């Protein structure tokens, strides 16, 4: 029986019912129960829910394995969850059948960039969402529909994986496939833009670190004997207000990075596959430079991720300090975890780039 992995925004159903976190979790559960579940049963697909694999919203190794290995992935893009967006980036790297859905008006991608089925808000939109998803999955299983953009570019350069007893076939003709220079230009553009996004993330880190130092100084003063606890809370709440700007900047940079990661995955995946299958004397100078850029970018991302590993626990600790700190702290933590979930993808590209350069040196 073909498998279908469903992933959507995460939240916490145990939070107060009036909290946004609780509402996100409830909406995602409704998406699984009322939309994906019935459709999978109708089409005889074995459903695997992301919240049953990892309830925390973190892109764990186990979660990533499901994203890569299952026959079909159904992604709920409602609200542009960073975890979902980065999961899709990983999925697109392997070029397998993927269906994007989302509540109308909340999907971060334009329909002209990544085809997305949009439905009215649940629960009222459940019936329409089921109809649209059924049609998309039925066509995907039969191989009759055009593949989604990311898969189409990759599969134009490599064999198509099977779904159950059916195999997906490339939907584009030979003349529609991107050429070498198309791939190089697309990959270079996205890599350069991602370097800028990383710089913005690091700038946000600097701002947050400076504010944390000020918080420490203020808390020391507020901890003097005889000072009421309300004074400490006032300091924490001022800090919460101060980090709203940097946390929003970080969230924005992470979202841009996510979108570019999707495009870079398409271009680089196909380009590296082309390089493997092409005699080294046919490589262009631009390709050599891009391989160096991939290696350099992987190192920069790994370095930033190492720094983030130290920040995330502190940020999560802050979220327990006061209600006002909870939202910006969680936004920071979610952005960092999701963004640096792409480290594994870059490290795989780095290994491939090094192998290709070594093979060139030996030839």
Question: Which descriptors apply to this entry?
Answer:
Rossmann fold; Glutathione S-transferase Yfyf (Class Pi), Chain A, domain 2; flat; 7% strand; 363 residues
- What portion of the residues fall into strands of 2 or more residues? 5-15%
Strand order of the largest sheet: 2-1-3-4-5
Uncertain runs with pLDDT below 50, 5 residues or more?
12-17, 144-162, 165-174
Distance between the termini: 46 Å
Number of helices: 12
Number of strands: 7
Radius of gyration, CA atoms, in whole angstroms: 22 Å
- The H/E string reads EHEHHEHEEHHEEHHHHHH
CATH C-level category of the largest domain: Mainly Alpha
* Largest beta-sheet details: 5 strands, parallel
- Using the alpha-carbon principal axes, give the shape: flat
Overall residue-averaged pLDDT value? 74
- The amount of helix comes to 55-70%
Task: Kindly identify the CATH topology of the largest domain.
Answer: Glutathione S-transferase Yfyf (Class Pi), Chain A, domain 2
């Amino acid at each position: 029986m073909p498998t279908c992995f469903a992933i959507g925004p995460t939240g916490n159903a145990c939070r107060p019912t009036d909290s946004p976190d609780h509402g996100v979790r409830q909406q995602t559960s409704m998406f699984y129960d009322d939309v994906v579940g019935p459709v999978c049963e109708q089409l005889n697909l074995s459903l695997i829910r992301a919240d049953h694999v990892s309830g925390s919203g973190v892109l764990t190794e186990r979660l990533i394995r499901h994203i890569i290995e299952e026959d079909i992935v159904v992604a709920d893009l409602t609200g542009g969850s960073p975890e979902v967006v980065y999961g899709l980036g990983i999925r697109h790297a392997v070029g397998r059948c993927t269906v994007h859905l989302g509540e109308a008006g909340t999907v971060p991608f334009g329909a002209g960039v990544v085809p997305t089925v949009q439905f009215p808000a649940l629960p009222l939109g459940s019936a329409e969402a089921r109809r649209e998803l059924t049609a998309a999955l039925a066509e995907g299983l039969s191989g009759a529909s055009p593949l989604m953009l990311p898969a189409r570019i990759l599969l134009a350069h490599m064999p198509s994986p099977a779904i159950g007893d059916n195999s997906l076939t490339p939907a584009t003709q030979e003349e529609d496939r991107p050429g070498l220079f198309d791939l190089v230009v697309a990959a270079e553009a996205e890599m350069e833009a991602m370097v800028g996004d990383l710089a913005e993330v690091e700038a946000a880190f600097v701002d947050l670190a400076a504010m944390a130092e000020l918080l420490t100084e203020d808390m020391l003063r507020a901890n003097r004997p005889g000072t009421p606890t309300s004074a400490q809370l006032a300091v924490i709440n001022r800090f919460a207000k101060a980090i709203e700007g940097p946390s929003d900047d970080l969230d924005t940079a992470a979202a841009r990075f996510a979108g570019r990661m999707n495009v870079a995955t398409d271009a680089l995946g196909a380009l590296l596959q082309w390089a493997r299958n092409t005699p080294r004397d046919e490589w262009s100078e631009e390709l050599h430079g891009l391989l160096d850029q991939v290696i350099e970018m992987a190192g920069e991302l790994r370095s930033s991720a190492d720094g983030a590993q130290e920040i995330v626990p502190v940020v999560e600790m802050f979220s327990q300090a006061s209600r006002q700190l909870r939202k910006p702290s969680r936004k920071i933590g979610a952005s960092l975890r999701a963004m640096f979930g792409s480290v594994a993808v870059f490290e795989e590209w780095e290994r491939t780039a090094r192998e290709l350069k070594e093979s060139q040196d030996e030839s």
